């Protein structure tokens, strides 16, 4: 007898059994339901049919299912179709049961492979089938299972009929109504089974569509299937993510995650809008934050499944899926770590967290692959990006060794190895390593780069086109393959990058080698290979790195004509095709051209075209159109600001500029341009104007680097007196206004940096030195060989030593030979100028028609004939010391033939964005700040504001001392004051030497040569090869030898300022030095140099000395025996030295020692990479030769000095490009 309560109970049990896949209990439960609820025949028949289908389907393996479809279902089950159809028609009271029956009928047709009938019987979604049904939330779990089953079967039938879009539409339309299915917990067996089957089919179908039609990635719902898949698995919180296979015949679960990762990676790599459809709720602020967060989540899940399900391979096995995953990770990392993504876009940890996470991925991949060259190559790249240089180059060494062995193995056996990098990838990796070594390393790195360049050259000659190997003297290979096969193997731009890397290695080695002959050869090789990298055979697009390196090499060799033409051509070329912003960041082309603008400015200043040089400095900033783009709206802390700064701050506020996304190398380039601008301003308008404008350096530095020290300013009480140019608008400033009405309305006189050409006609020549005529009315300073100086010693009160006079107005490179004033000779090449007459002899003037062609200068139309245009006979007298260097200048000026600079771009982000440790960045910025303070000190010194110059030196010294304290407190022992760290240009010892050198020149400006000598000695104690310190000390030593500089008296004089110790403001003199050099030697001559009360004068003392010492033959005012060493006569003279308090000059032995030491220092310096083209050193060396009577060698050195000075800019060439050849 029917019982309603029991019927409800058994119906519930029947539903549970179906959901739990307890099909064995179904027949008994069906019998009981029929007994207590005979009107539920549709339900019972459906349950029986589902049970029979399940049992029949699982008896046959999936592989046999297609060929034995009729055997899957018994004939009795097939005969149930009419009964099921009848029950469906009869059912009117229970819509859920009718819906379940229709799905069952469709499932039965699908099993029988009657797909058209399946589409007829399968219902749509329950809400579409029964739109009037109100309580959708109360649907039973089995109804939800049937809904999933129905959608899956319908989409599967459509896909089999090649209706993929309709199938995807069926899946997507079911997602809203089935949203509750993914959150049903705990989900039972059948719900999980059909849900995973539904999502797997949906994801794989969507992935297939996306791979074939990339436009679908722009659809906001392109990730709907994958996000639903992720939401489905997110319910099992705390449980390990399931891998393996979800059901028989299915794809692995990690394959779905792989497709998810592929799709979201494509969105990232194509820089498409972030898809918002079905996106999870996120706290991230921006779309890029959300994309990065989702990408990281999917990558972590897929990586975990892949690594856990992959075992370590045998030697002959490949792990293609692991290497494909690693390649995709690195492509994503390249974008995320590039300049197109900002630090805040990457979420917590920024680039550091990103790169270290990628390293973990790579090391995990190394445990699942066998000697994978790709993994090692990527390890090198990422270690380089996090500034772990030692690990990076160790990875590269392992990579190169494996590649070499693998290539040799393939060549020997003839069996290709899929996991081995191809030739193009290998060449690019070696080029990247060479570039990194040249950019971030020192001498050891340069040597390693040179060795790699030799290997790379051999590989390129072997793999490159045959015609490129036959030209330029390349030896052909013994066995050449067909040209077509070789050309198709390596892309042309990779060959260009390879030649560029070879050229960079040679250029870097030429800078650090001690062998002058090897330096010359390396420079020639560098130019040769860099020109080859820009050859038209590699395409019409030139790499900006190659243009910069080649232009800098030409400039260093004083080949200004071709260098200027090359750089100008590169700057004026058409912009390359857009599309690199994602990798290189916004305004990438303008940013890469900043060093080229700076190099052009220096080269123009070398030709004394100061107006154009100043405009080139402005051009580096004007290419950004608006200073707000470059500097943003942040205010600049500082006292003085030019007009544009005030205008920008008044109009706009807040916001970051391009400088906030630059690395420290790029920021230093901007700061160096500012220093060059001020140097031009100083040279043209005087040091006082430069001093007044130098406060912009202290304003610019905090904007670029932040506040690394206390507020950057000098004491207001010590500020220099204001001039009419102090508060005016400096159009020469990179921030200068370009509106003429503002730039002229309040200027009493116009600056050369903003004025017209008429201003240039009145520019005075460069500051004169002791080697030029001292009269300021001389229009053409002359170069003269110093003659005998005995007649110049008229008394201590009436003369200064050469070292004092030479250094009182300028620092390092401004000290000696000056270029002639060519500002008025550009358009009047035929104008005659009289030669200068000194002591009855005609000396060189730049406009003498009788001079060799080497010293003539053409007009603008005819081109500038620089130092490189000398004829072979012109320099025949300079072959003893400068034959190697001069041989380059005897060649004709090279031209741009054979170069392709029609379009300039960066081929690829060859070097990754290197993220240094914050401590390293802080140290590097402090080093830069030291340079800023020393530059400012030089401005103050040359303006005669010695107290302010001293304070600037003290500021620099404080920073250096803080760096020394950090090294002393380092417990790890990795820091050193002598070694230059990776990514640094100077060691701490060299910084200390810089400070002492600047103080030495400040003492020379104060006319205190012995204090200066002590400072130079201290500088060389810290850094023995410091060029400026060697030159400064050598000048003083030569003055001591020539007795232009006499020793201080043994008894201190009475001329004291502020008491006995007038130099108490100087804190850093050694105790010993302070006792010996505490008086100014040039101020005591007003008193006698012998004890008071004695009537002996200097003349009588000299007479007595002459009476006691036999007269020695003299040459140029000095004993001939000086040329051969110490003679017995001089030995006797040494025994008769007067007491110290009676001495009026140094003993000859001491003077000879001073001269020989100066010669030794200068000779060693001119052989170094820092001194081979240092004109100050060569000029001082010429004087050392002259003092020793070697006049021929002195002339040789002077001619080389003339050649160097002829092509010297307002600053050294090393200030461009952060001190190297690599951008």
End-to-end CA span: 94 Å
Average of per-residue pLDDT values: 75
Number of strands: 7
Task: Calculate Rg over CA atoms.
Answer: 42 Å
List the total number of helices: 50
SS class: mainly alpha
Oligomer: single chain
Major sheet attributes: 3 strands, parallel
Shape: elongated
User: Beta-strand level of the residues, as a percent range?
Assistant: under 5%
Strand order of the largest sheet: 1-5-2
Given as residue ranges, the uncertain stretches (5+ residues, pLDDT < 50) are 62-70, 467-488, 650-654, 715-800, 807-892, 1057-1117, 1120-1126
Question: Helical residue percent?
Answer: 40-55%
Function: Involved in endocytosis.
InterPro entries: Endocytosis_PI4K-reg_protein (IPR051722), TPR-like_helical_dom_sf (IPR011990), TPR_rpt (IPR019734)
Family: Belongs to the YPP1 family.
Organism: Apodospora peruviana
Topology:
Elements: H1 4-19, H2 26-36, H3 41-57, H4 75-78, H5 80-90, H6 95-111, H7 115-121, H8 126-129, H9 141-160, H10 164-174, H11 179-182, H12 189-212, H13 224-234, H14 253-269, H15 287-308, H16 320-336, H17 350-366, H18 373-385, H19 389-413, H20 423-440, H21 443-463, H22 466-470, H23 483-487, H24 492-512, H25 516-533, E1 541-543, H26 544-556, H27 560-572, E2 574-575, H28 581-584, H29 588-606, H30 610-622, H31 627-631, H32 643-651, H33 664-685, H34 687-693, H35 695-705, H36 740-745, H37 757-760, H38 802-807, E3 836-838, E4 841-843, H39 879-890, E5 903-905, H40 918-942, H41 946-968, H42 988-1005, H43 1009-1022, H44 1027-1041, H45 1071-1076, H46 1098-1108, E6 1114-1115, E7 1118-1119, H47 1128-1135, H48 1148-1165, H49 1175-1187, H50 1191-1206
Parallel strand pairs: 1-5, 2-5
Antiparallel strand pairs: 3-4, 6-7
